[in-house]
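Quick start: load a record and inspect it. Here is BD-FAE-like domain-containing protein:
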Amino acid sequence: MGVVALVRSIWVLSYAVVSAAGLLLTGVAITGLPTKSRTANVVLSLLSNHMSELPWTVILLDVGFYIWLSITGTAIRLFNYVNVISVAGLLYLFKRSIDSKATVDNFLNQLSKDSRTCVELPGPNSPRFWRQFLNPLHWPENYTFYEDIPYWVSTEQMPILRSESRNSILQMVLDVYRPNKVQGGDDRPVFLYIHGGGWTSGSKKWTGPILSELLSREWIVVSTGYRLNYKDGYPTQLIDCKRALRWIKDEIRIFGGDPQNIVVGGDSAGGHLAALLALTPNLPEFQPGFEKVDTTVQGCVPQSASMDLMDMKNYNHYNTRARFIKEVARREGSAESEENLKFLTEHSPIFKINGTSVPFLVVHGSLDTMIPVQFARDFAQKFQKESNAKFNYLEIPYGHHAFHVFPSPRTWYTVIATAEWLAINFDRHEPGKQTSAANESRQKVQVHELVEWGWSNDE
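Running the structure step on this input writes:
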């Protein structure tokens, strides 16, 4: 076989594989069928999100591949038909993304009854719609970024270094995003974002489009990291997030944030941590060494979050209890043991609702195969029975797990609705306009170096 023939056969095989995979993943994205393997669900969920939230990107890549094969004379008619079917499915996925506007409109209309404000979502006739849709790498503008600020205190540094490694202490940092119009003492609301990743992976850089929307409304956004592979396992992640909250309470006024107006949110495992942080304020067992620090927050927005680690109704299609006990919490014994079941209950937000006064907005996609939507529905039902706090639930049709990190129409509708809920409940004055109280607060704020939060050589 000559070199040219070999190259052509490789292109033919590649075209066949890509075409078949495209058709399969498009079908998975449409149906949202789960598997009994967590690994398979993770991979399929990620790829399904690409197909469902970025269908035009997939179509353009496919067209480019087809044109190249046509030029080289290696295109196969059979797979052309396969790709036509895939493209039809991708167009259908895009239509479903746009159709989610109706659900979000209903949600906003319900909010407007209380706030007397009305927000119009951008449709295909809106410049904003196309500006966001045509820029999948959309990033906010006019802000200042403060990266990798340590949130541990000097007395915590050496014990952590002795028991773990330098890498662990480097994970205990956060990022602050400050709109350029905001100055120290402005007392703007603060959004603490906790990333997902199954409690053992992920990055604080995974904020998604919610970052752009909140910065445009002049919110301070703090995205925190936490230890991912601590030898003693969970609840180290929760304790670290409470340490980050401690830092915010002490330092955020320097950046223009209000330490008494903090909303915590996150996606997937980060949503679980956000909910548990909001529902367990000031509990000493989750605040070792800083038991007297106030860790209350004013609101919570968990997205695609695991609200019930017990999963006694077996909503998940794989054994999540065993995985959490063995891989995340790193506890001994069976996940079904009395001690471990008690542990799972103590760390499930659905069992911590009773008596809370923290307002919640729960967001979940209806086709989530990683954390089925039934978890969110059960949490919503139980919250409304056991708490008088404000509660809203936004279920997004055909949204896959953590769909909201992809900049699709469905995501932007969800982001705008989330930001509007936050504005109605927590934004005390109009962005860009400083009240006399804010000006006075700005004058009084003491700008100082963050000397407590940094490396120390003290033993």
